[in-house]
What we know:
With 131 residues, this protein is an alpha+beta fold.
Amino acid sequence: MGDCILCKLVRGEIGSWRVYEDDFCVGVLDIQPCAPGHCLLVPKKHVERFYEMDDGDLGRLFTAAKKVAKKIKKTYKPDYVCMFIRGGRIHHLHIALFPSKEGDGISGFPQSNYPKTEVDLNKEAEKLRNA
Ligand SMILES: [Zn+2]
C-alpha cells in the first residue's frame, strides 16, 4: 500500500505530531482538528475495516485507544472522549478520538448532524438478528 497516506504516516514519510506509539499502532494529532486534542490512532499495518481484523489485533487497537482517550481526558478534562472508527474516505482504518463536552456538536453526532431516517424498528431488528 505504497500510496496510502496513513501507511506513509506510520513509516514517518510524512510529518505528524505523534502523541502515542506502541508496536502495533501510532497516535497522532489530526491536522484538521474539530477540537484541541483531536487524535487519530492508526494501526501500523494496512487494514481497511475493523471487522476484518483478527480479534487479538482488535483488542490491541482498543487497548491503545483507551490509553489515548485517558491522555485526552487528563489533558483537556472534557466531559467524555468520543471515538469514531473510520476507514471510508481514507482506506486505512483509523480511530478518531475527540474531547467532548455535554451538548457540543460532537457529543450528539451523528444524530445531531443528520436528519432522522424513518425506519420500521421491528423489521430492522429482525433483519439484523437473522444476519
Ligand atoms: Zn495504509
